[in-house]
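USER:
Class, as today's exercise, take the chain set out below, and explain how the chain folds.
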Amino acid sequence: MAEGQGGGKSTGDVDAEVQKERAMIIDAVCVRIMKARKVEVHNELVSSVIKQISMFQAQPPMIKKRIESLIYREYIQRD
């Protein structure tokens, strides 16, 4: 049982889980910002997300991908 907390997970599995968790965090922050502000310019939304996330350094390309996902899933809409 010296494998640690994660058991026998490979580095790829751990990376995938971390990316999935980060995506959920970015989604939650975007939705929270848009609920509060109702309308926001894309660049302002990205910078607000970066400022609010303290657990990791959110990268603009990933934030953009998550915003597109939220638009596709109809959590937010493009004006």
Observations:
- The CA atoms of residues 2 and 8 lie 10 Å apart.
- The first helix runs from residue 11 to 37.
